[in-house]
Amino acid sequence: MIFNSWEFAVLFIVITGIFYSIVPQLRKWLLLAGSIVFIGFNHWGYLALAVSTALLTYGSGIWIDKQNDDKTRQRYFTISLIAHLAILVFFKYFGFLEANMSLFIKTIGGNWNSTITNIFLPLGISFYIFQSISYLIEVYWEEQEAEKNLGDFMLYMLFFMKFLSGPIERPGEFLPQIKEKKVFDYDKVSYGLRLIAIGLFKKLIISNLLATVVNDVFSSVQDYSGAQLCIATLVYPIQLYADFSGYTDIAIGGAAILGYRLSPNFNRPFIAQSITDFWRRWHMSLSFWVKDYIYEPIAFKKRNWGIWGISYALMLTFILLGLWHGDSWNFIIYGAIQGAVIIYEMSRSKWCSKWNKYLSGRWFRTYNIIRTYLIFSASLLFFKIEKFADVVYVYNHIFDGIRATYKEMNLGMRDHNIIVLACAIALMFFYEYADSKWDIWGKLEKKPIALRWSVYYLIIFIIFSCGDFGATDFIYLQF
Amino acid sequence: MEIDQILNEINSIFRKVLNNPSINLTTTSTAEDVDEWDSLNNIRLITEVEKHFDVKFKLREIMKLKNVGELCTGVQKKIA
């Protein structure tokens, strides 16, 4: 059951309707029941694993919190951490590890054939295991008391609006919200509905219209010319952004209707001045997670190595961030490219601050935005394309066929779709710009009701008339 | 050592490491208040503070720091 499906729409409307009709004490139990239905609807195995993991995290938290002696506390924390990582490694990386081990043994002259062909990959596992680890670390660091109420804890782990693809919520942000009394708040509900509309606009118009052509190009790169590969490479970041930020908008909006605040995941990433800046704006709940729980502990441990310690921590952190996405060498390379570019940017930061007054002009800022976008687009090929050889093929042929015609460069899309897409992308970026400068929704709230509802109906009309309602999954569901 | 003196010395370290002579820290300053103070520079700042005062922090102590004032108090406790 995905957010852009009719099953989800029915489930969400039913839950919301009951939510505001029953006594407040029962509301969190309703959300827990709804979450169980939502996860179990996809596969009973997903539900069984998610519930077992949540119980393990709940028990581990109390177990760690009870210890007064530092060494015992550390030992219990390590055991709990290993148990959680073992679940993730078994379900997500076991096949990859075995295949590489088999290849290694063959390389050194041994004989061992990989036997694992397909392990059941539970939906949302990377997200909820990271959430569990976040909780355990916070309890271990004494930043968070272990949650004693099992029902509250299960809702923190399983809440259906964030279960599939995050945002990865920190316990200190989410658990207190479960204990708050939820009352119907018109402003929150209308804010939530607007976010859902924006999310659907991004997903159904921009992401879905681009998905078919981008997927076609990257699934058989040899069949396309250099100009077509170049166009697909340049538009893929926009498709990925529209898809994932669209999902996040729906998640945050849906949660807001039910009285919950979820963490933001994006902050206008395509205006980033550098890749370092980009990762503070892109998939923020994951990038802040790796910063707090991987980068800072490693960099702190290696602080006597000076700049080498920071570089080592950065590279390891981004390789693990890449690997988080999936069990392939391409994801590792994708992460390593981010790490290498950030290390390079760090090494020239002194030079930049020296020349800052010359480098802070409008043209230089525009150049930085374009350069960052191009680096990210090029690195994203490792994220999108499964075969390493195909990525190399794209790099080798991306500038072939400069004299391509418009017919070739439109990747087979109809003119009507190209116009819709161009307008939708421009509108999305303009909306984000305007929203960051002025409180446009706040201003709209003060306008006459006829104008307000005209705008709302216009958005709904645009989504229904231009959206591609083919049930395509959100890209981040695979993680 | 008094907190004000520690704050002054930490301020000089910040100016040197972040290459910005206009930094003026107070006990309530946080990373939000200093442009160049990001997660990359944070480790360099802590390392320089440790070297300067000849103290060692634990990771958990660093993670719990909320502002410059708490860093000063942490240093003061360790050198006492």
Walk me through the structure.
The complex is a heterodimer of chains A (479) and B (80). Chain A has 479 residues and is an all-alpha fold. Chain A folds into 3 domains: 6-179, no CATH class; 186-262 and 405-478, no CATH class; 269-397, no CATH class. Helix content of chain A is 73%, strand content 0%. Chain A is built from 21 helices and no strands. Chain A has helices at 6-19, 24-42, 44-66, 70-107, 125-140, 150-158, 171-179, 186-219, 226-257, 275-278, 284-301, 307-325, 329-347, 349-354, 356-359, 362-384, 388-397, 406-409, 415-437, 440-445, 449-466. Chain A is globular and about 70 Å long. The model of chain A has no long low-confidence stretch (mean pLDDT 90). Chain B has 80 residues and is mainly alpha-helical. Chain B has one domain (3-79): Non-ribosomal Peptide Synthetase Peptidyl Carrier Protein, Chain A, CATH 1.10.1200. In chain B, 60% of the residues lie in helices and 0% in strands. In chain B, helix 1 (3-17) packs across helix 4. The termini of chain B are close together. The chains are: A mainly alpha (479), B mainly alpha (80).
Top keywords for this entry?
heterodimer, A: 479 residues, mainly alpha, 3 domains, 21 helices, B: 80 residues, Non-ribosomal Peptide Synthetase Peptidyl Carrier Protein, Chain A, 4 helices
